Amino acid sequence: YGVGYEETTASSLVRIDIEGNVLHPGFARQTYARGKVNKAGFIVHSAVHRARPDIHVALHTHDENAIAVSCSPQGLLPVGQANYSCGDVTYHDYAGVAVLPAERETLVQDLGPKSMCMFLRNHGTLVCGESIGDCMIRCYYLHKACEQQVKAATLAAAQEGVMILPPTEVVELARAQTEAFDTDGEGEASKASDVFLKQWIFHLRQLVESDPKFMA
């Protein structure tokens, strides 16, 4: 905590347990940051990991387009195909900065037993996964879906508010097709090795080639 994203490396990460006890302070270059954890971040993530053992990775983002969609009463709309990679999407109403332990209960209730993507109203998103690759690719598509929706809504506003959306039965079909695609034989084999989507392998390769310092 207190280190910029560009400064964060693998060795600077702080390891904690489900109760928030520091197991390893990390080796951040900024010595003041070693062993320090964001309280709000701990409340959100500990709640998820405690309630959902199927979730091994939880990512909280403040993407601008996602925040804009979180403010919409309709939430995420099936504007484009990126939407179908998000699965069941849930919503959590804003209740101030998440520093109160009591919010763990409402977070878990709103996330539900199956959702891996939740909008935090007027705040951001919570994206989960069974692996780092699973979570990151899901987050990539969620952010893309939000970007597409914001652009479509802007265009629709200039055209008397008309936005063409597929009918419910087509949306359900597309989601089923996407889910089947993600869990085919090859997907399962990659999933078992913790890099279950080819897209994640590609993005990881790009990151390693462009800025390998994060592995230090």
What would you note in describing this structure?
The structure is a single chain. With 216 residues, the protein is of the alpha+beta class. The protein has seven helices and six strands. The chain has helices spanning 39-51, 64-70, 103-111, 132-157, 168-182, 185-192, 198-210; strands at 15-16, 22-24, 57-61, 89-92, 117-120, 124-129. The strands form two sheets. The chain has a four-stranded mixed sheet with strand order 3-6-5-4, sandwiched between helices. Strands 1-2 form a two-stranded antiparallel sheet. Helix 1 (39-51) crosses helix 3 and helix 2 packs across helix 4 (132-157). The two termini are 18 Å apart. The model is unreliable at 189-195 (pLDDT under 50).
Write a brief structural summary.
This protein has 216 residues and is α+β, with helices and mostly antiparallel strands. The protein has helices at residues 39-51, 64-70, 103-111, 132-157, 168-182, 185-192, 198-210; strands at 15-16, 22-24, 57-61, 89-92, 117-120, 124-129.
